[in-house]
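Exercise 7b. Backbone tokens:
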């Protein structure tokens, strides 16, 4: 932004200087500062990034037929989603719902062949972990016209406190062990965790879950790792850093209430019910093929560190019930 524009917008030169300084910190300095914080040597990022991009270009040539087939598939899928006239939240839930149908709730696969194009494992192998789910979700949202990108984070795990494993634990934190999708909508950075069937927001530098199929309530305290800089587009990362910094600002109770009303657990439950009903009507009388776990099932779940997902996920259509005191409206 030019100085003359900043002054015109703020009404004074001192304010203009402050705004320019903030702009520099957000757009120019913040990514490198965060990189320095999460890596002992920031130069490693700049060494690995070109190597990663070169490897990805070579892999693209090898997988070009698979990639073109996948792109054609999600283009057709996007047309089907558009024809359903869903709300934004219903669209997000529909994509999560279909992912779990395709993969039978999510399971690990040998996706070495598709490591640099993680979304292909969902399409070709009907399985995968968090990175496969998120990459596929992001690609489909982009095809639908949403401003979406992958976010590499660290969601925590039970750590081995022995001396020999301390370095491994630190490495996991800074490398990351989970991937989610971030979509910019309604002036917020909405976090979609397709593997864990959850939606959240950025708040005070963390990812805070608002709703999930399991009524899971949690916070991811390391919302970005150095894999973000290596594996993802720099412009996308800078944009995410901007929202991450803004998340430290105070949010009014009125704004928070609007977010909860639109994306909170009650709205999420309603969207689940709507999507499930549509799926039943489409697949009737064979409605038992849907893979979804009861949102009312409060049983304890065990984190799978490797994928960031959950074990013991046993979808059951009969558990999906109409929201209390509320009729489904379609």
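Sequence design result:
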């Amino acid at each position: 932004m030019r100085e003359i524009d900043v002054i015109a917008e703020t009404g004074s030169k001192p304010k203009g200087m402050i705004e320019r300084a903030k702009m520099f910190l957000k757009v120019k300095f913040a990514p490198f500062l965060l990189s320095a914080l999460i890596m002992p040597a920031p130069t490693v990022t700049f060494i690995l990034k070109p190597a990663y991009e070169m490897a990805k270009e070579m892999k693209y040539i090898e997988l070009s037929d698979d990639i073109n087939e996948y792109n054609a598939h999600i283009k057709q899928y996007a047309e089907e989603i558009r024809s359903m006239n869903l709300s934004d939240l219903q669209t997000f839930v529909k994509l999560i719902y279909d992912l779990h149908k395709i993969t039978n709730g999510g399971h690990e696969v040998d996706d070495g062949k598709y490591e640099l194009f993680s979304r292909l494992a969902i399409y070709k192998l009907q399985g995968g972990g968090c990175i496969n789910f998120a990459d596929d979700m992001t690609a489909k949202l982009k095809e639908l016209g949403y401003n979406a990108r992958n976010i590499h984070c660290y969601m925590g795990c039970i750590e081995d406190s022995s001396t020999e494993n301390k370095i491994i634990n630190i490495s996991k934190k800074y490398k990351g062990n989970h991937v989610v999708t971030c979509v910019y909508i309604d002036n917020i950075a909405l976090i979609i965790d397709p593997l864990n069937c959850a939606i959240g927001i950025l708040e005070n530098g963390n990812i805070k879950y608002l709703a999930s199929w399991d009524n899971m309530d949690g916070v991811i305290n390391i919302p970005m790792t150095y894999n973000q800089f290596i594996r993802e587009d720099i412009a996308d990362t800078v944009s995410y850093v901007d929202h991450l910094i803004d998340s430290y600002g105070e949010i009014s109770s009125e704004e928070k209430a609007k977010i909860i009303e639109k994306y909170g657990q009650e709205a999420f439950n309603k969207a689940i019910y709507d999507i499930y009903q549509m799926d039943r009507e489409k697949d009737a009388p064979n409605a038992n093929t849907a893979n979804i776990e009861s949102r009312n099932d409060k049983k304890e779940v065990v984190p799978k560190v490797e994928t960031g997902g959950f074990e013991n996920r046993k979808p059951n259509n009969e558990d999906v019930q109409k929201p209390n005191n509320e009729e489904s409206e379609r």
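Instructor comment: Residues 1-38 form one domain. The longest helix spans residues 13-38.
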